[in-house]
Amino acid sequence: MQLSGLGYFGLRTRRVDQWRTFAENVLGLSAQTTEDGLRLRADDRSWRIALHEADTEEFGYVGWEVPGPAELAAAAAELAAAGVEVTHADDQLLRDRDVLDLVHVADPNGVRVEIFYGARTAVTPFVSPTGASFVTGEQGLGHVVFSVDNYAATLRFYTELLGFRLSDFCDLGRKRIAFLHTNPRHHSLAFAGLVIEPERKPRKDVEPGELFHFMLEVDDLDTVGHAYDRCLDGAAPVALTLGRHSNDKMLSFYAITPSGFEIEYGHGAITVADPWTATRVDGTSLWGHRRPSKPAPAVPPAAAAPEGAKA
Question: Where is the composition biased (Low complexity) (predicted)?
């Protein structure tokens, strides 16, 4: 199976209005109202990110693109032969996704994976509210990163069944992050899971299949800087400060979205070309990407100006 790249994803949210403001004013995406929420554009596609009005904040689905009908039929047949339950889209779902055809399956963590072809190209040009220009095209939309319960099963699913290729790994204590590519983008998918079982099962702060973050890449470093300034000025909380990653060399920062998970907003990542040798990095960043420090506590008046001290 050969996927072309990340085509789209959808989220369920209570905060559609906040997402519109965040998407347009912070990220520079354009928003269009739909019957159940919003669709966000980043390029000439009719949409890339969907926000569905709901009573929860959660990841809904991810769409991986294939070149055409023959490749989709082959992908569905390969998955079915491997014992994966494959569901073919009905007409309503095709209209909702604005594609010619798709099938969907569940990955080992319950993430809904849609494989599609024939996404609609808009006849009107994409115009960013902030002047941003996103790196998409042959590299797809960007990347998504998940928490997983069974690291080994997830790695087999995406590499052996969906045809992703390994870019590299990063070990963080008992956890390992796998970075996978399916086109020149260094990674369109990454996931983190336990590779060393603890003596006692830890409390799960993040459920399997939960989105850690998604990434959007822009074509100019100043676009990143301006977005960073907007966040520092209060448009959105900064989750990680400006920094450069050790593997894909992306220069980026992370902000907290209205749904509570994070977005990486960056520029300048390297690309890969197969055959590619997967290696392991010691840490995720060369520099930066720090959690913002808490403001210093106010100095008590007595400490600031002891009795008898001159002003």
Answer: 301-311
11, two tokens: 């989220």
- Cα–Cα distance, 216 to 304 (Å, whole number): 46
Residue 296 forms part of a structural domain: no
Q: Which two tokens stand for residue 118?
A: 């024939």
CATH code at 12? 3.10.180.10
Domain count, the chain: 1
Alpha carbon distance 25, 87 (integer Å): 38
Residue 219 within any structural domain of the chain: yes
> Domain for residue 103, yes or no?
yes
Q: pLDDT, tens digit, for every residue of 205-260?
A: 446 568 999 999 999 999 999 999 999 999 999 999 999 999 999 999 999 999 99
Q: Which amino acid is at 87?
A: T
The CA-based diameter of the chain, rounded to the nearest angstrom, is 86
CB atoms within 10 A of CB 222: 10
Distinct helix (H) and strand (E) counts, the chain: 6, 18
CA–CA separation, 57 and 16 (whole Å): 11
Q: What is the pLDDT of residues 74-131, one digit of tens each?
A: 999 999 999 999 999 999 999 999 999 999 999 999 999 999 999 999 999 999 999 9
Return the closest-CA partner of residue 261 out of 121, 59, 123. 59
The answer to whether residue 305 is domain-embedded is no
CA distance 301 to 174: 46
